[in-house]
Amino acid sequence: MSDLARKAEETWDTIAKSFDTTRRKPWKICLDFINELSSNSIVADLGCGNGRHLLPCAEHCKGVVGVDISRNLLKIVQGKIEDKGFENVLLLQSDLVELPLKDNSFDRVLFIASLHNIKKRDNRIRSLKELHRILKKNGVAMISVWSRWQDRFAKRFLVDLFLFPIRYIKALGGYEFGDIEIFWRQHNLNVKRFYHLYSKREFIKDVKKAGLKIIEVKDVRLKSKKRPDNFFVVVRK
């Protein structure tokens, strides 16, 4: 596991219990995708977090593999699996940039709100290529990221865009335009989380670079009032 992955593991392990208390409800857009799963489907949930989308998958399909960088989050998911009595779920701790999964193994993949937590564009594209690798031919995936220009961050990135030359910013500690650190302050914690917030154009470009064919793109407002705060794509191998 790389140093970046170990840092991410430490971050998410630290906030795992707090995160779980605030992320119980699955998103409707994801449930709509999950509800269309065939009962024979084998599904991977990449960056499964506390299992809020993994558990509905387990109810609908033949088998689910949940992958996350955080051992503590996976322990939380394991407890929920045992409470539900599911026997069709396997959990793996792994960096999403290098998955311990076989080629062409999954009918469907969820990659929800996790791609944007991977530092460096090369690594993000590698994770998308890994998604491509594990999907079966004609397999389908749903991927989501946070939008760069959502209400609460737009001014921050406008300052970066107009006050500093981009090539100069990028030279400072490997910064890429769209990178931001967002603090987790619930339950008296004060933990920095890395995010790369995407423009819609950049998101589509990276997905296509991984060899995935875009079926649908959606701009979604989950909390923002004016601008979309999330982008979702449905893709096919």
| Basic shape | globular
Low-confidence stretches: none
The first-level CATH class name: Alpha Beta
Rg computed from alpha carbons, rounded to a whole number of angstroms: 17 Å
Number of domains: 1
Helix content: 25-40%
Which sheet architecture does the biggest sheet show?
7 strands, mixed
Strand order of the largest sheet: 3-2-1-4-5-9-8
CATH-level-2 architecture: 3-Layer(aba) Sandwich
In percent terms, what proportion of residues is strand? 25-35%
Please provide a written account of the structure.
With 237 residues, the protein is α/β, with parallel strands linked by helices. The chain has one domain: 3-Layer(aba) Sandwich (Rossmann fold), CATH 3.40.50.150. It has helices at residues 3-22, 28-35, 54-60, 71-84, 121-134, 154-163, 166-171, 200-209, and strands at residues 42-46, 63-68, 89-93, 106-111, 135-146, 179-184, 191-196, 213-220, 230-236. The radius of gyration is 17 Å and the shape is globular.
Would you spell out the secondary-structure blueprint of this structure?
Blueprint: H1 3-22, H2 28-35, E1 42-46, H3 54-60, E2 63-68, H4 71-84, E3 89-93, E4 106-111, H5 121-134, E5 135-146, H6 154-163, H7 166-171, E6 179-184, E7 191-196, H8 200-209, E8 213-220, E9 230-236
Parallel strand pairs: 1-2, 1-4, 2-3, 4-5
Antiparallel strand pairs: 5-9, 6-7, 8-9
